[in-house]
Amino acid sequence: MLKELQEKKAILKNELEEFRKKRNELNTEASKWSAQRNELNRTSRTLLDKAQYYKQERDKHNRNVSESKANRDKCNKKINAIDATIDRIKKSCNLSGPSVSELKKEIESLEFRQQTHVMSPDKERELVTTIASLINEYKAKMAEIERNVELKLAYEELEDLRNEAALCHEKVTEYADKAQEFHDLMIKVFKEGDSIRIKSDRVHRKFVKIQDEADRYHQQFIKTQKEIRELDKTIHSITKRGREDRRKVERLKIRKEAEVVYTQFRQGEKISTEDLMLLQRSDLL
Description:
Helix content: over 70%
Order of helices and strands: HHHHH
Strand content: under 5%
Structural class: mainly alpha
Number of strands: 0
Largest sheet: none
Low-confidence stretches: none
């Protein structure tokens, strides 16, 4: 039985070493996947921080767009009010027809046409005459405006308001372009982050699978280790009983031999030094 137990222990020790080796290999592989996952997560967090920054910048520029639009709308309301005032003054002064700003735009448009289009001499003379007529009308109206202080001030205020409204509109366009730029960057980075997170989740699942397998080998290692300890206890117990049995047999043998010697000693026979030591070991002396 002892031999069978020792053979079983030897088998278990081999299995224990295999479980240890496999567990350690899997733990090493799991650590590699864990490190890769952690690096991907760090990259993902960096991209998320960057996307949040782009979002904040986009929102800031959108707020600027709203503010500039509000300022532009205020200017346009004032412009409408000034236009109404100018119309009232013009009616009271019998200044009908197009405004000076409309005349100026028309003159500039016709001059540009004259400079950029090829036309016959007759057509060009006709165009020059039209431009001259419009310039005379413009000058006449400007003279009327110069003579009418209220109208002149109204036009000056209108010009200032139109410049301010144009500036607000430029800001609306500028801030809107910036907001769109940061929005596009945010979307791009969010997509990159999503891609990294998907890869990280895939690596994490791989890590969990390998770690679970390593844990199973570790449990088998612990179980086998426990079995070996139990076998050691049994083997030790059997070996101890065997030694005690042998010592008991030895003591009985010595006792019998000592009793023979003791009997001879009591009968007055001479005993040897070895016989004397035998009697001492048997506690008969």
